[in-house]
Design brief:
It is a single chain. With about 400 residues, the protein is α/β, with parallel strands linked by helices. Helix content is about 40%, strand content about 15%. It has a domain of about 130 residues: 3-Layer(aba) Sandwich (Rossmann fold). The strands form 2 sheets. A 4-stranded parallel sheet has the order 2-1-3-4, with helices on both faces. A 4-stranded parallel sheet has the order 6-5-7-8, with helices on both faces. Helix 7 crosses helix 9. The protein starts with about 25 loop residues before the first helix and ends in a 5-residue tail after the last helix. The N terminus is likely disordered.
């Protein structure tokens, strides 16, 4: 969910960003009836021809007639791993009424007087542990950009009028700036794809809010579609299962337990009608059936608790600690609610939770990479895009 809400930092050394998924294609790719129709995923990191120009690109891209814009959206990440940039990012995130619903005077005092000054410094240290120094950006941004570029390459046979871009709900590149760029290119139809498998008001809904906010200022609005939650989509479940199997084969140990760790949310949000918890449970149920595992071997937990309110339980870090104390020696954690590796997966799970597990008696711990921009992940994104583009292409 968020690239901002994580558990407190530890002093362990950073784990390198996970490698791309193994080149051996998962079983779902071999079984998919439509695979032959899918162009190969480009290995080059160079932008495809029908990718909208990046915000920093000065040259004006070619305009198209009756264009179709496809916008991948993720939550966001600071522009730099320092306290100033993290504070700017957190302030934008934590002042969103979809994220913090009770925003009275007391909250504003706590936010500006305690949370932002202290948490910004702490999280800046966490970001430094995982920062992509080659590109001077977080891995979250690197992967999301790559997803857009590869999707552009896959969709290129549809024609130059199909243009793919990417944005972040918070920080840069902003949703408004990329919508403006797509419309300037000639797009009169837009497909916005929030990359959140499970729906939450604090994720999917706030993306829609920002899109609608921008469109409200236009006299001539484009036609709009927004990708719905895909928590029970067959391709999503099969790709998760087959990718997990491939990763498990590569491990030097066999896990005693596998945790499915989803981003947490206040319990009160569910009581108000948010379907997030039920959709996480359904994803977990489908994965258990796909993998042939019961609830003791494949457990559902929730991470990244923030504040003192009661959040969805069981908490991931408490479960990791309890399993280690119980005698579990080999643990694997998969984060199916994240479409790309970010601070919650690379630091909170792969570093902090690993440290807790080993501190209380565990021996082997592995954080499974997200689907990211590997072949399996791109197959899923392509399938979702083609489903939502029906009637337009």
């Amino acid at each position: 969910m968020s690239d901002a809400q994580t558990a407190p930092e530890t002093e362990t050394t950073a784990k390198p960003a996970p490698a791309e998924l193994p080149r051996e294609e998962p079983a779902v790719i071999a079984r998919a009836e439509t695979l032959a129709e899918m162009p190969p995923v480009a290995e080059s990191s160079a932008p495809a021809a029908n990718t909208a120009a990046a915000p920093e690109t000065a040259a004006a891209p070619e305009k198209v007639e009756h264009g179709i814009g496809v916008l991948l959206v993720n939550l966001g990440t600071p522009d730099a791993p320092d306290a100033k940039a993290v504070r700017r990012y957190l302030k934008q995130f934590l002042t969103d009424p979809r994220v913090i619903e009770k925003r009275g005077l007391f909250w504003k005092l706590i936010l500006n007087g305690v949370i932002l000054p202290i948490r910004s410094r702490r999280k800046a240290r966490d970001y430094k542990r995982i920062w992509n120094n080659d590109k001077n950006e977080s891995p979250f941004k690197t992967i999301t950009r790559s997803q857009a570029e590869k999707l552009a390459g896959i969709l290129e046979p549809l024609g130059k009028h199909v243009i793919v871009d990417w944005a972040m709900r918070y920080a840069n590149p902003s949703i408004a700036s990329r919508l403006e760029a797509l419309i300037a290119r000639g797009c009169d139809r837009l497909l916005v794809m929030p990359l959140y498998p499970q729906y939450a008001a604090a994720t999917t809904a706030t993306v829609a809010d920002e899109v609608f906010r921008y469109l409200m200022g236009l006299r001539r609005q484009p036609a709009l579609r927004i990708l719905p939650a895909y928590y029970d989509d067959p391709y999503y479940i099969e790709v998760l299962a087959s990718s997990l199997k491939a990763e498990l084969k590569a491990l030097p140990f066999k896990p005693d337990v596998i945790l499915l760790s989803y981003h947490g949310m206040p319990k009160d949000c569910v009581l108000k009608g948010d379907p997030y918890e039920a959709q996480c449970a359904r994803t977990t149920e489908l994965l258990r059936a796909q993998l042939g595992l019961d609830e003791e071997k494949l457990m559902m937990t929730f991470q990244s608790r923030f504040g003192r309110a009661r959040w969805l339980e069981p908490y991931t870090i408490a479960t990791v600690k309890a399993l280690a104390k119980k005698g579990v020696k080999n643990l694997v954690v998969l984060t199916p609610g994240f479409s790309a590796d970010c601070i919650e997966t690379l630091e909170e799970i792969a570093i902090e939770n690993a440290h807790v597990f080993k501190r209380y008696g565990g021996e082997n711990f592995a954080a499974i990479p997200c689907l990211n921009d590997g072949e399996a992940g791109m197959l899923m994104i392509w399938q979702l895009a083609m489903r939502e583009l029906k009637g337009w292409v």
